[in-house]
Amino acid sequence: MGFLIYFAIILIVPFWASRRVKSTYKKYSKIQTTANMTGAEVARRILQENGIYDVTVKPGKGFLSDHYNPSSKEIVLSEDNYYGMSVAGAAVAAHEVGHAIQDAESYSFLRFRHALVPVANLGSNLSIFLILGGALLGFAQLYLLGIIFFAAAVLFQFVTLPVEFNASSRAMNQMVSIGLIRNEEEPHAKKVLNAAALTYVAAALVALLELLRFILMFIGMNQEE
After folding, report:
1. How far apart are CA 208 and CA 214, in angstroms?
2. So where does this one cross the membrane (predicted)?
3. Which residue in the list 41, 79, 96, 185 is annotated as catalytic?
4. Element spanning 18, H or E
5. Chain segment 70-114, per-residue pLDDT in tens
6. Which of 74, 105, 134, 218 could cross-link to 142 by cystine, CB 3.0-4.6 Å?
7. How far apart are CA 175 and CA 161, in angstroms?
8. What single-letter DSSP state applies at residue 8?
9. Beta pairing partners, 124
């Protein structure tokens, strides 16, 4: 029964978070900002106001595929957000610029997350094979190595949280201080950003639950020996 509840949680929580962000985005993508600026214009305006001139803004493919690439110094906005003038698009664009500002200011958590990327990628790819191999072969040391690799991936998920929350906070401050949104539009923008943040919280929670499950299985394996 416990395993059924566990699997229900790791399936339902991410699904609920994904549905929440999509429905919230869809709702506020239909509301145009009073500033009548596209997401691309919002992004470029905030970059200019912060004296950042080495970051380009370009359209990308895919629904909510928006991201900031620190290596190429590019903010990529999905086409709806790049060309659209909605509150949702403005909020998403401002959020990605928040990451660019973090990069320009060498924000500590962003630097830490960048440093963790190789380890987290390795952990995500290898950990399951090591854990499965250790479980099937009864090799506790191999299983433990898999847990360590997986823990690195979990750490990456949790370091991502302050990075994303900080980018959203910067986004709201920038949009308000520059006058890109009015008072009545602030709650709408916050709802979009908060819904997006839920996906990262859900991912971190699921990763933590998986790590705890692997640890409990490792303890059980040692008790059987």
Report:
1. 10
2. 6-21, 115-137, 143-165, 192-219
3. 96
4. helix 2-28
5. 999 999 999 999 999 999 999 999 999 999 999 999 999 999 999
6. 134
7. 21
8. H
9. none
Single-letter amino acid code for the residue at 28 = Y
* Residue 210 annotated as catalytic: no
Tell me the residue range of the domain where 66 lies: 33-224
Phi, psi of 115 (to 5 degrees): -65, -30
Each residue's pLDDT tens digit, 104-146: 999 999 999 999 999 898 888 899 899 999 888 888 899 999 9
Which pLDDT score, from 0 to 100, does residue 3 have?
Answer: 63
Amino acid occupying residue 210:
E
pTM of the model: 0.89
Decide if 212 is inside a domain. Answer: yes
In this predicted structure, what is the pLDDT of residue 76?
98
Q: Say how many C-beta atoms besides its own lie within 10 A of residue 107's C-beta.
A: 19
Q: How far apart are CA 218 and CA 131, in angstroms?
A: 9
3-state secondary structure of 153: helix
Asked whether residue 3 is assigned to any structural domain, the reply reads: no
Residues 70 and 66: their CA atoms lie apart, in Å, by 13
Looking at the structure of the chain, the number of domains it has is 1
Q: Provide the strand spans (E) within 61-148.
A: 67-69, 74-78
